[in-house]
């Protein structure tokens, strides 16, 4: 069992990272070039972010391709991206900034 702590806030730190995460989670297998074309972001940013996703255990690298790992963490991140925090006005005041950014980009 993996007892390593995950830095999930690093995955959601900027709007560009959220865009990359949504794109990557929608593709079962992808390359840096494919994600770059779909998102319009630089190859350097995409490459570093895919390496971060691999380090966090969401992706597995096979040669030059990244394959989505179907694990509980991947399912949890996908669910988090689908959360609609607008259901309650009180929730908006308590919500973490990066979580609010996810909902805005929805």
Give an account of the 3D structure.
- The chain is mostly helical.
- The chain has one domain: Arc Repressor Mutant, subunit A.
- Helix content is 58%, strand content 9%.
- It has helices at residues 8-11, 15-25, 32-39, 43-56, 72-81, 89-94, 97-105; strands spanning 29-30, 59-62, 65-68.
- Strands 1-3-2 form a three-stranded antiparallel β-sheet.
- It is globular and about 35 Å long.
- The N and C termini lie far apart (33 Å).
- 13% of the residues are buried.
Q: Could you list some keywords that capture this structure?
A:
Arc Repressor Mutant, subunit A, 3 strands, three-stranded antiparallel sheet, mainly alpha, 106 residues
Pattern of helices and strands: HHEHHEEHHH
Coarse morphology: globular
What is the name of the CATH architecture? Orthogonal Bundle
Question: What is the spatial order of strands in the main beta sheet?
Answer: 1-3-2
Q: How large, in whole angstroms, is the Cα Rg?
A: 14 Å
Provide the residue-averaged pLDDT: 81
Q: Biggest β-sheet, characterized?
A: 3 strands, antiparallel
**Multimer state:** single chain
How helical, in percent, are the residues?
A: 55-70%
């Amino acid at each position: 069992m993996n007892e390593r702590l995950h830095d999930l806030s690093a995955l959601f730190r900027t709007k560009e990272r959220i865009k990359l995460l949504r794109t990557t989670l929608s593709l079962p297998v992808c390359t840096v070039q494919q994600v770059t074309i779909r998102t319009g972001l630089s190859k350097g940013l995409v490459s570093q972010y895919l390496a971060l996703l691999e380090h966090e255990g969401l992706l597995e690298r096979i040669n030059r391709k990244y394959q989505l790992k179907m694990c509980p963490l991947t399912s949890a991140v996908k669910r988090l991206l689908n959360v609609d925090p607008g259901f309650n006005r009180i929730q908006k005041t308590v919500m973490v900034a990066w979580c609010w950014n996810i909902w805005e980009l929805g």
